[in-house]
Amino acid sequence: MRFALIFASGLMALSLVACQQNPEKAEKKAEVAICENLAAVGDAVENVQALTPTSTVGDAVKAQKSLFKAITNLEKSEDALEKARVRDLRDQLKAFNADVEKVSKQKKLTLEQAAQELRTKAQPLIAARQRALAEVDCIEEPATKP
Predict the structure, then answer these.
(1) Which of 12 and 72 is assigned the larger pLDDT?
(2) Is the dihedral angle over the CA atoms 11, 12, 16, 17 positive or is it negative?
(3) Residues near 116 by Cβ (< 8 Å), separated by ≥ 6?
C-alpha cells in the first residue's frame, strides 16, 4: 500500500514537471480545443437556424441542448487556456525573480553588466507575457457543405 502511494506520488510529480517544462504545448492544446469548440458552436447555431415552421418541438429542444453544450465546452476550453497562460507567466516570473536575486548578490557587477544579464534572463518572462496577451488564431477551413 505504501509503495503504491509513493509510486503514485512520483508519477504525479513527474507529470507536473512535464507540464511545467512545456507550457507552449499546453497552450497549443488549449487553443486547438477552443478552435474545435468554436466550430461546434457554429454548427449548433446552424442547426438552430435550420429550424423551420415544420420542425418539431423535439427538434428545437435538441438544437437548443446542442448549442448549450457547445457553448459550455467553449467556455471550459477558454478557461483552460487562460489558466495555462497565467501559470506559465507566474512560473517565468518566479524564475526571473530568482535570477534578480542571484544578480543582486554579485556586488562586483556594474549596473550595466547587471542590466545586460537581467535583459537576457527576462526574455522567457517577456515571451510568456506575449503568449498571455495573444489571441487565438483559428484557421477557418473551407465549407464542406454546399
Answers:
(1) 72
(2) negative
(3) none
What pTM, to 2 d.p., does this model score?
Answer: 0.69
DSSP 83-97: HHHHHHHHHHHHHHH
Chain center to CA of 40: 19
CA distance 83 to 143: 32
Please tell me the least confidently modeled range out of 5-19, 30-44, 84-98. Answer: 5-19
Task: Give per-residue pLDDT as tens, 98-135.
Answer: 999 999 999 999 999 999 999 999 999 999 999 899 99
Angle, alpha carbons 77-81-86 (nearest 5°): 145
d(CA 28, CA 73): 17
